[in-house]
Design a protein that fits this description.
By secondary structure, the protein is mostly helical. The chain has four helices and two strands. A hairpin with a 2-residue loop joins strand 1 and strand 2. The longest helix has 47 residues.
């Protein structure tokens, strides 16, 4: 089970149409359909039923949806945290570099630190 399969499942569930979900994810419809099929194989259950009105979740799909949404939210939160930490580390590295550069220019610490 891959993250892009879960993402495809959630997007189709939200939009009810494979082509709309494919457009939203910037992938081709056949690729999105393969992702959904692979997820269904991995889970051993059909997640959708095709109807005239689009894609309808099966009982298994309805049961899986909140878990899939939480998984995506968790990954997004983790990505945000890493980016935040990287930003903090980048700012610390930048400050250390500035301090080091100032020290090299003014080893006695006579110049204004600001």
């Amino acid at each position: 089970m891959l993250l892009n399969q879960i993402e495809a499942f959630v997007e189709v569930a939200r939009r009810k149409r494979v082509h709309r979900a494919a457009n939203a994810l910037s992938v081709r419809q056949p690729s999105l359909s393969r992702r959904i099929h692979a997820l269904e194989v991995a889970l051993g259950s059909d997640l959708f039923r095709r109807t005239r009105d689009g894609m309808e979740l099966t009982a298994a799909g309805r049961a899986f949806l909140p878990h899939a949404e939480r998984a995506l939210e968790s990954v997004q939160a983790g990505v945000a945290l890493v980016r935040e930490l990287e930003g903090s580390e980048s700012r610390r590295t930048h400050r250390r570099a500035l301090t080091s550069a100032r020290s090299a220019k003014d080893p006695a610490g006579v110049m204004d630190p600001g």
